[in-house]
Amino acid sequence: MSLLDLLQRSTEKFATRAALISGDRSFTYGELWEVVKRLGAGFRRLGVEPGERVGLMLPNVPEFVQVYFGILAAQGTVVPLNVLYKGEEVRYILEDAATRRIVTSRMFLPVIQAVREKLTHPLQVILVDGDVGGDSWIISGSDLLRETEDTAAPGHHEVAVCLYTSGTTGRPKGALLSHRNLLSNMTSFRQIAPCDEQDVFLCVLPLFHSYGATVLMLFPLDIGAAIVLEPRFVPDQTMRVMAEKRVTVFAAVPSMYALWAQLPPPSVDLSAVRFAISGGAPLPLETLRRFEKRYGILIYEGYGLTEAAPVLTENPLLGPRKVGSVGKALPGIELKVVDEAGREVPDGAVGEIIARGSNIMLGYLNRPDATAEVLKDGWLHTGDLGHRDDDGYFYIVDRKKDMIIVGGLNVYPREVEEVLAAHPAVAEAVVIGVPDATRGESPKAYVVLRPETSCSRHELLRFARERLAPFKVPRDLEFCEALPRTVSGKILRQQLGARDQL
What we know:
This protein is an alpha/beta fold. It folds into 3 domains: 3-178, Rossmann fold; 180-337 and 381-399, 3-Layer(aba) Sandwich (Rossmann fold); 403-501, GMP Synthetase, Chain A, domain 3, CATH 3.30.300. 30% of the residues lie in helices and 26% in strands. It contains 14 helices and 27 strands. It has a 9-stranded mixed beta sheet with strand order 2-1-11-10-12-13-14-15-16. The chain has a 5-stranded parallel beta sheet with strand order 4-3-5-6-7, with helices on one face. Strands 17, 18, 20, 21 and 22 form a 5-stranded antiparallel beta sheet that branches. The N and C termini lie far apart (53 Å). The mean pLDDT is 92.
């Protein structure tokens, strides 16, 4: 079984049903499958070899899905690139992955053209739109669609995707995910998600990220559902699209829910929405409460990471939801909480979360040392600190690397952030550790206020002192207009720390 088999199976069952919807364009499963077959044949005519890594730099448009599966049909490996990346970021991935071909749009051509000459290998660009011009290294995507042939499905142990992690610290690493990894994760997710071919998924999360790709592309295609593709997140516009397209399920990151919660009361009909999913970063309790109060839509929080294809836990969509938790381990996935020596700790005790299952990546591309650091005896060491309760629900406390040690005492930034976010004027807050000559480290807070509100530094620190032990209260607090984030919604704490050292 491969991802290509998945799409073919859904096509046989749901050929005339809508698969992709984008503005006024739509593709049925039958139409999507025909394009995929032609692209696969075209890539092979172009010389794509089994296992070859092919770049894909497109926003959430039907061509992303078509090309993704077209590369797989040629037995290639998909290398999605963040469409927000600039020259050096693009050059690094193309070089690291030894990518000789990339499929993209004319809007990204200037960036690719600028880095092409800096690569140590030739690069061919395939454009899905616009005029090719006279450049011999650019070809039109329409040239790949001339004819079709039988599609050879790759084996499920072969690498399907090389997904570069967001690189919150250091350079991004290419996580190698096999067909088996991704299919395993969907099989697990399907057992806890009450969805079928009648559902309509909103996909505004970027498809080049593991969260969007698995939950909002592969999973809906697996069950024969429709996917509404939105290339950009515009809070009020996405709400209108959900109403117009009668969306039933959507997934987002906490920063999106925070922005939705700040909108005026909705004037559109969202009654078709059955539930929402949150992941990519911890969901502040105050954000959940504000969103649910405004829209009456329940959010089910989950947890995962790129290296796990990516979902590890989810609050049961068919069972009790525990607000504040990231839910239970998905079927077929083992999770443990361990101490520094790798020993499992009792329920309620904080330790590092480690995971085992057939969804866990094969390793990092070109990084044997980094692979050995996180994959030990078959277990993925996530670097996330958390605990499990008596009912098997997991709670994320913080990233192991983000923990602040104040005079020998542990301070978990998320705990302090939750307290600050509970203030009526606060939209978002992030806490980092900064050097302290006396205590080693001390907490510093960066705060974004809600529109049309005001709050003084003194008032907010007093609010924190009333709710936190003295060593957890930020020694410094800075107001800012926005927090730096990765595309998956994670705070770029390293950027804040670098700013603080200037």
